[in-house]
Amino acid sequence: MSVEAREARQPWILLSPALTAVGLLLFVPLMFIVVYSFWLRSAAGADQVGFFLDNWQEALSDAFYRDILLNTLKIAGITTIVCALMGYPSAYFIARSKGNKPVLLLLLMLPFWISYIIRTMSWINILGVSGALNSLLMTIGIINEPIQMLYNETTVILGLVHFLLPFMILNVFVSLDGIDTNLESAANSLGATKWQSFLQVTLPLSLPGLAAGGLLCFVLGAGTYITPMVLGGPRDAMFANLVYEAIITQLNWPLGSALSLMLLVVLGALVMLYNRYLGMAQLMKGLG
Amino acid sequence: MEGTGKLGWSLIRLWALLVYGFMFLPVAVVVLLSFNASQFGSFPMTGFSFRWFVELANNDAILRAFRTSVTLGLMTAVISTTLGVLASLALVRYKVPGTNMISTFLIAPILVPEVVLAVALLLFLNFLGINKSFTLLLFGHVIFTLPFVILVVQARLVAIKRDVEEAAMSLGASPVQTFFQITLPLMLPAVLAGGLFAFTISFDDITGTLFWKPGGVETVPTQIFAMLRNSISPEINALGTVMILLTVGLPLLGAAIARQLAQKSGP
Question: N or C: which end of chain B has fewer CB within 10 A?
Fold first, then answer.
């Protein structure tokens, strides 16, 4: 074999284990559940192999699934907006601070490393019947009996915001940090007020970071089932909870496949749309 | 005008401070309550005590979960880092046609919602005869951590100059010698960072793990999840405190080691 041919083969040898792993453990399984979603669950024994539209008919026409899907998108949407409102000024503060930027950033990243389940359950300590807030309110004398503040849609959103905020801040920070501060100074020296130069120079330049953070918050928020299980009430199920119910509790794997694919299509469409207009590179910057 | 700018900045600083408080307060309460002497895991605090940590150390279920999580995390880290480093080398060091497509393909596992990945892997491997088991957990964790390893390692690999390797080769070192004596030591911080990242993500994972784990086997997060079903006990807070120390301490330690290594091998 010639030297050139060997050179050309080398990267593929290095890539092949990872490509094989992703192919066999992600793409083939995804194609498999497409097939599986047309099978039928049988009351006893193995699922019935074939081409049945029943699962899709149920998943697409039942108002129950549609309502929960819409509610999931609503919760993810509110979460994303709250993350943006809380995260943008914080990221701006870190990026423009004269203090120790790496330390400020690290401080905000620490919660990011703390286990998701711990951070989610920590709200029970704050808002629970015998939690910090009730305890405080009773000590001051505002209330006599503890109030149940947990297990509703608001606490689900609260938990999601607490979980996803670092993703937003990191992405906005990366794009704000990359903006040349001279641009703002130039705008100011040309007569723009601080507020004008922010609105017309800095904000537009940081939108890609805001969009990347928003996408991550939305997709991760809409795909969760743990937060509603820990912080939500019985009526706060999100779409991923339906998938969990179908697969783990009811063992209805064909229906679970169809529901998973629905979620994938809805959230995948968002990722594609983002990729089409802004490209994956921005997202990678924030993750790396 | 200068005045409004200052006022604006003060407001932003206050806002950021509140956000920091929002992020840290609940976590701080977990740590505080884990030292609560009271029977119940709640306020008011009745005294300072280590009793819940002692109970933790005597709780077989939690110790078992801990061992499972550590074993799973270490194996995931080794496999994922090996695959990730090889792939990153190819992507950074060679001109491969279609690099963009390959990158997108390799990070696809984190672009797909984790629930969907979990369902697909469970159903497919079950079809192949691999039931819910440690093997399924390991496969799942590897595929889910691989993109993170690739992103981290690639970012650091770009910073390593090829000149040193070329110098070694021109002085007569074989490619294999060059790799082990020059490239690998230079890459070590990147490799460690990737491994640490994979371990931490695997150690924390619950979304996929609940789908893949066989009955009776628990990792630390699923154990906590199961304990939450009863009520929140000080034991969970103690376990939370241990987890916080581990997951925050490890990356900090890793960063410190990486910096040391980078300084030693630096110019």
Answer: C
pLDDT at B265: 55
Q: Are B190 and B178 in contact (CB under 8 A)?
A: no
Any domain includes A55: yes
Position B262 scores a pLDDT of 66
Q: Which residues of A touch B210 (CB under 8 A)?
A: 226, 244, 248
* Boundaries of every domain in chain B: 59-265
Query: CATH number, domain at A85?
Result: 1.10.3720.10
Stretches in chain A below the pLDDT threshold 50: 288
* Per-residue pLDDT reduced to its tens digit, B105-163: 999 998 899 999 999 999 999 999 998 999 999 999 999 999 999 998 988 888 777 78
Residue A37 in any domain: the answer is no
Closest CB to B113 among A115, A119, A263: A263
| Partner residue facing B108 (CB), from A26, A93, A248 | A26
User: What CA–CA distance (Å, rounded) separates B22 from B3?
Assistant: 29
pLDDT digits (tens, 9 = 90+) for A268-281: 999 888 888 877 77
Mean residue pLDDT across chain A: 90
| Residues of chain B positioned with their CB less than 8 A from the CB of A89 | 12, 15-16, 19
Find, in chain A, the residue whose alpha carbon is nearest to that of B40. A130
User: What are the C-alpha distances in Å from A214 to residues A76, A205, B242?
Assistant: 10, 15, 32
- Looking at chain A, which residue has its C-alpha nearest residue B28? A122
**Per CATH, which fold does B59-265 belong to?**
MetI-like fold (1.10.3720)
Nearest to B121 by CA among B224, B221, B207: B207
Residues of A in contact with B137 (CB under 8 A): none
Closest partner CB to B84 (pick from A18, A36, A131): A18
